[in-house]
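Reading a protein record of the kind used here takes little practice once its layout is understood. An example of such a record is reproduced below.
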Amino acid sequence: MGQNAGMVDERFQMLRTICLSLPESIEKLTYGEPGWFVGRGPQFVWYPNRHSEDIFEFWCAVPEGVQKVLIESDPAKFFVPPHGGRLMWLGIRPGPNPDWGEVEELILDAYMTVAPKRLRHQLSEELAGT
């Protein structure tokens, strides 16, 4: 690993914390890399193997139409992942100093995109403070 490996690890830990804070979220390996799933259901975030390049990036599910809009808004940060583009996944490279509010919002959107109605409702209530 290069000189930025520690920074990548810190950002990964923050990503992990955000993902695991969601209702019934679990972490398991997918193709040898960490991914976060809604229970035994669908995956909403994946952390691909870019560690050796000191690149912090993750892929997440997005609602239909969002992928194109975000990529057009900032092609340096957002991209079509090589294996998930057709399935409405978005690649994100938030840079060396991520806006964690933005990252959390993207992860929440990913979760809400794939979670069952019951969990979407539960999370909405938690976010509303009810």
Remarks:
- The beta strands are 25-30, 33-38, 43-46, 58-61, 78-79, 89-92.
- The two ends are 45 Å apart (CA to CA).
- The first strand starts at residue 25 and ends at 30.
